[in-house]
Design goal:
heterodimer; A: alpha+beta; five-stranded mixed β-sheet; five-stranded antiparallel β-sheet; 12 helices; B: about 525 residues; mainly alpha; two-stranded parallel ribbon; two-stranded antiparallel sheet; 29 helices; 5 strands; about 5% strand
Chain lengths: ~450, ~525
Amino acid sequence: LKFTEPQIQTLAPDDASFKAGKGLASKSKWLLSHYNGRVLWGEIKGSGSKPYYTQIDVQDVAFKCSCPSRKFPCKHGIGLMLLWASDPAVTEMETEPSWVQEWMYKRVSKSEKVTETKIHSEEEQEKLDKSKQKRADDRIAGVENGVTELSLVLKDIIRTGILTLPQKDRSFFENLAARMVDAKANGLAAWVRRLGNINYAQENSVWQNEALEILGRLFLLTESFSNLATFNGEWQQSIKNLLGWSQSGKELLADDTTEIIKDTWIILGQETTDLDDIVTQRTWLLGVSTNRTALVLNFGTRFSPLDITAVSGSIIEAGVVFFPGVWKQRAVIKQTKSTLDYLSKLPQFIPSIIALNLHINKILRVFPFATDIPICIENIRLGEDGECFVLADKEGFYFEFSPSFVLEKQLNFLAISAGDFCSIAGIVCDNKILPLGIFQNQKYLLL
Amino acid sequence: MNGWDEILSCALIGTDKKPVNITLLPDSVVALLAQKSDDNSTIALRSAAVLSFYNNVGVMPKQLKNLDFTIIKETQIVANDLLMLLFKEIELANYYEKENLLHLWLNCLIQREEIVQANAVLNVINTTEKLLVSQANGKKVLRAKMAKVLGETGKRILSLRRSNVNEVEEVENVWLEGKPEQRRCFFAGLRNDDPQKAMELLEKDWSMESVVFKKSLLEIISAPSDDELAFIEMLYQNEFAFKEKEKKTEIECRWVIARILLHSAKSKLYKTIATSLLDYIPKEKKGLLSKIVGGKKLKLILPEQIDSFFNPTFFQTTFGVTANNQNSAIFPTDVTYFFSELIALVPTFLWTKMFNCSAKDVFTYFLEDKQFKVLLQGVSKSSLINVVHENVKFSKSNDSILALLATENPQFFFDLTGFLSPQQFEQFVSENNLFTEVQVLTQFPKEAGVWSLAFSKQMMHQNYKHNVELQQSIYEVMTQIMTMHLATETKQTIDELFLKDDDSDYKQRWIENVYIPINRAITVKERLNSL
């Protein structure tokens, strides 16, 4: 798969790296640059006597460069990909140099190791189970403390009136969120931060409704946790996830009993957020035949960069496994067979805004906590509501755009669609839509 | 609403003050609440949780009242993938080479009457908008070209990006509806293309224009046609003739008009002034003077006190020159001040005819003669240097420019090299070995296109030779100029220099700052030409 420039841009850690990479996307800067079916590699002169060796696994996307940069991928990786994308001068070469072979060998053996499970003796297993149970109990106890404290705070706020919220210092919310993090209830901490981040300067009716909704949701979460024992396994797992329990992708991959959904998956889009030095990358997938949607989460820190498993806008033949839950969304890509340039079949589209509304309601009825719902919709185009663009259907029913779909992106949408009806993929959150890409001529173009 | 307002009103002031009246809530919610024995705050929170969910799932999407949304239809041919790929390459170029490459690319599209692909429209706009341009009006020129290749999609997008609305606004009839600057540009263009029509337009609408705009139009006119001369003489004798009470701009208009008239030997003013000036040439030596070649004996005897010619009233009424000498450090007497004003107005050919000598002799006299020298910050300098410069800049006479550049300190006049013909420019640079003189090289007019092959090769060799001593910033400017004007056939020369055996760091610098960008520029040019 040859990446397109917008796809490469989504892989760059920041704008500066992408810009620096662009500066290196010239044939004359590279001492050599080749590719074959599985890997792309190049040598570029650096500040030292030896050149930097840059390599990219183009199937199971991964980067490696011998430069000292902490950025991932570094500017050399980005530059090489851009060069490959735009310049036919990057030539095909079947034989890989030894440094490429070595790295690819390690990658293949590592991925094989992942599926291997270590066998423990009965005694060892019992010990492991015990310590696991203890950790689980401790975690429950910690979260219970957090939930109890938060419940009291919520009641206090509602008792004294939410009109006091705008007067509260930012540290009130930050400290409360920090205590939830200490109690290992990161999910609650995120909602507390959201309460603190409301723009209290905006129109009263707006912030007041927003604040009361968040308080209601937080209450529902704390109540759900208090009644955890009354729910079935999937619900218990989903509630725990919402409160901050993490799920291990490695364990899921190692579990042979989990169903693998094989399909042609479109990588609809990605979003990266950075909070407390932890980078969270959310990647949304759509299975063309199964019509299943999935969310792949990746985490990175300053010292362990994001593991890039999927490139936004690409189309892959892959197997995806889902974590258990009421609304199964979070998933891991298990096997990537190949990448495709075109869609041989289009996904099933939602035909109108009314149908989209029903679709969202259906999901919310199953799982009221559902947010960021991936959708594919056809027969829609830009409409104008006053001075704002909206996403409208033929009858004029519309969804407002999410604030992150900024004017620049709206104009790009206008340019590509020419204002005509089209089919798009996007994410619905809080009754607003964030378009991610547009379907055109059996291709999926990122917006 | 479904009880939400009741919950919100209680939540706002607090349930301590206002407990929720559950009878106002929907029955299903009341039934839910009845299962628990909650306190007031819990009732409010539980109701908020349930009702916010109801609000999310139970509301119909909003509907637009106006369903009209224009579908953009393109009528022009869309550029092919190869052209768009070239744009991507231009995007990768260094900032100092991008402007020129972008011009070439846009020119190519305009010539082919094609528009950019829809998915690249925003990229083209952003690249153009963010570009650092080398000349003051560079962005304007680039934007105008860009607007031609964006098609209907681009026009729509530009109109939605508020900051650009004014800049690319298209007016159907610029002369009638345009802004002053647009109208001025229109008139200047029309005067070049169709002088007759420009004159008609000028005469027809002159009375309706403001004095400020009239001045800006007059400033465009140099080397007037007979019709223009007649019109301007009429203005000089009537509208802008001296009046007891007149506006500052009217006086300035008289100055502009006087300069135009003096630069035409046919005008009455020229003849009058030429005759008057003869009085200041020493008569007894005139015969002898005419025989001296080289002009060292040129002499003007200026009066020590104001007289009938060099006096405030005459200069104000005749030339629109302000009566006050505001710079006594440079012009110690009123006469020297008025003389300098005269130099600014009178063409070089008047002096050459009067002294019967070459333009170089005239300039040498004005710039080197002791009577015009002043001591400024310890340096002896001609007080006439600026006015001579301004005068030649107005006349744009190649002979005068070359004569000025042949004087002892040509560096003061390097900016005038831009008015030379490409051949004269190349010759001047070669003869004076100014291959690394950025001040001169930047003057080569963009529209003149490429340098000759011989000159291009010389430039490359000299740039390579002086690599060690040139500052990075100068280096970048030089590369920018070379990417613009080097002949594409120079590729062989740069490849030879590239292969030259030299491992120094400077060679690496040359490769990065000169070889790569120029190679790219030549490749882009070649590809554009081959399309």
